[in-house]
Amino acid sequence: MSYAKLAYIYDILMEDAPYLQWQEFVHHFGPASGRLLDLGCGTGKLSACFAQMGYQVTGVDYSEDMLAYAAANTTNIQYLQQDIRQLEGLHDYDIAVSLCDVINYLTSKQDVIQAFTKVYQSVKETGVFIFDVHSIKHFQEDMAGQTFAEIYEDITYVWLCEPGEASNSLLHDLTFFLQDEQTGQYERFDEQHLQRTFSIHDYLEMLRQAGWTNVQIYGDFQTMIAENPEENERIFFVCYKN
Question: What is the residue range of 160's domain?
Answer without folding.
Answer: 137-196
